[in-house]
Amino acid sequence: MDCELCYNYLMYIHVKAKTEMKKEEVVQISVDHYEIAVREPAERNLANKRILEILQTLFPDKIIKIINGHHSKSKLIAVDDAD
User: Fold this and answer.
1) Residue-wise pLDDT tens for the chain (83 aa)?
2) The pTM is what?
3) FRET partner for 43 with CA separation of 20 to 30 A, picked from 8, 31, 70, 73?
4) Residue 76 belongs to a domain
């Protein structure tokens, strides 16, 4: 059996969120670190939803989830293969 079929590949990225900005922007600091500026406020989960939408455009056909940092500017995001 091929090992690629045995394992579910998962990548983690770190995101520093900047909320209520005039301009939306994504800056890749390193391979797994990003700064994302969004217009939405950090209330009622609006900024988190927009960050996930932006990441979905960067990683199409992947499952994107916030693992840690729902109420923080620093977030740990899981990027997984969509099976």
Assistant:
1) 344 443 455 889 999 999 999 999 999 999 999 999 999 999 999 999 999 999 999 999 899 999 999 999 999 999 998 76
2) 0.85
3) 31
4) yes
